[in-house]
Design brief:
single chain, alpha/beta, Rossmann fold
């Protein structure tokens, strides 16, 4: 059965390679990126494959709340249903670590944008749908002052905290929606895969991106993830695993979710965070 699959950050790296694999299997792929040029190149690459599925492109800067809202509206205008949402887009080391609204861009792109996009697309995601959130082996306790833009962090700390925050809201939202919602699963695709983000941060060496592509395709389609809502898959160990302890703490997860909602409300009011 052909599925409609939205993959954020799919103009290069693991996002593009996952799009290639899923398109080659005949699925309809909704590509997302910040650059129209790179999106056009990615679409041309998929369109050139034999037996590929339909391909659409969507431009949005995920560090901007308004752009995320526009992205969700554009997808909803063309589709009544999304079978799989893969929240893949992520940033680590950037020249400007602050968004125009004053947030750390790692939290904005890695945590807040996928939370907002998932919430906005929920009417398109039924009980059989899946939301696959790219987590990481790099996770550390979330400083709420950093999440809200009040304190600065190093690149490594901001990235690790943003990925734990993603893992926490994945579990919290899955529990909130229960059996009436889609499967929401956080996945560490594998450590130090050979992607642009990893190369920029750590140098040219890295593990085969195919390791991550394989688990994302499985998370999107395979029966082993059919009952995985709220769980965490660690591809370094090749199995579902206990997430960071904070992701199992209901109070910390609730505090995080409240902070996310407060940030979105402030951004909606045009308030500069810091």
């Amino acid at each position: 059965m052909t599925k409609t699959i939205l993959i954020t950050g799919s103009t290069d790296g693991i996002g593009l390679e996952t799009a290639r694999a899923l398109s080659a299997a005949g699925h309809a792929i909704l590509l997302h990126g910040r650059s129209e040029h790179k999106l056009a190149a990615a679409k041309a690459e998929l369109d050139a494959m034999p037996d590929h599925g339909a391909v659409e492109t969507y431009v949005a800067d995920l560090s901007d709340k308004a752009a995320v809202e526009t992205l969700s509206e554009a997808v909803a205008a063309r589709h009544k249903r999304i079978d799989v949402l893969i929240n893949n887009a992520g940033v680590f080391a950037v020249a400007d670590t602050r968004t125009a609204a004053g947030l750390d861009v790692r939290f904005a792109v890695n945590t807040i944008a996928p939370y907002l996009l998932t919430r906005r697309l929920m009417p398109l995601l039924d009980q059989s749908a899946r939301v696959v959130n790219l987590s990481s082996a790099a996770q550390s306790p979330v400083e709420l002052d950093a999440l809200t833009g009040e304190t600065n962090l190093s690149d490594g700390a901001a990235y690790a905290q943003s990925k734990l925050a993603l893992t926490m809201w994945s579990r919290s939202l899955a529990q909130e929606l229960g059996p009436n919602g889609p499967v929401i699963v956080a996945v560490n695709p594998g450590s130090l895969l050979n992607t642009k983000m990893v190369r920029d941060a750590y140098g040219p060496s890295g593990n085969d991106v195919a390791i991550g592509v394989d688990i994302l395709v499985r998370a999107a389609l395979s029966d082993e993830f059919a009952d995985a809502s709220g769980l965490y898959f660690d591809n370094d160990s090749g199995q579902f695993a206990r997430p960071h302890a904070d992701a199992l703490d209901p109070q910390k997860c609730e505090q995080l979710t409240q902070s996310l909602e407060a940030i979105l409300q402030n951004l909606g009011n045009g308030t500069k965070i810091s």
